[in-house]
Amino acid sequence: MFFCFGKRKDARAIVLIAGTIGAVALELAFVYSGHLADWDRYFITFIPNGLLLMLYAASKIRIPKSLLSRSFLWAGLSLILISGDVGTVLAVQIPLLSHPNGPIIDAAFRGQSLRYADNPFTSTANVVQYINDHPHLTILADTFIDWPIAVRIHHLNQLTITSDYDFAAILHNPRGRVDAFLVPRPLFTAKLDAINRQWPGLWAGSVPWTRLIKSFPGPDKFRLYAILPSAP
Predict the structure, then answer these.
(1) Handedness of CA 29, 31, 34, 39 (dihedral sign)
(2) Three-point CA angle 109, 42, 85, nearest 5°
């Protein structure tokens, strides 16, 4: 703030101020809107780093003599630290990061790297294998989430994907046009999957004109649902 309004003004200082406030505001907006999702990985180290940065900033700031000014200073620094802690606490609660049966913990016990645990090609290999083993099965899949699967299918005509001209039409009226829907568990960014948005509850088995063919393990918990004759 000294470089924004003090004797040594520097226009570049506003970038640092905006970045500091913006990062905190972004996280709080995600927390309160319930859409923190994968953004939490950017805040997971905030507790140790935030504490050190707060102490460093305090050591460099000339503490005002006024009790009121001093209180505002420490309140501001504490608010920044606490807001980052909120994201960290939420981050370590998601299954991918902390659950005993989650892929990261499992990979650690197996002596594998974090890159292996979070590799979308590794986690979807079983889905790819199943589709390749059933070459006559036609499937609708949104490549927003399903792209690691789509790029490894042997017979590309098995899949109708997001970029196909008839994707939206089949999504709304699938009967007789595809055999099945491939849908990820509607959690975090997978809530934005086109099938999850168009047919809420499909993954949980709540759409009556579908029948579960197979469930797949992995972070996205993909499920393959057959389209029954009663479908629209």
Answers:
(1) positive
(2) 90
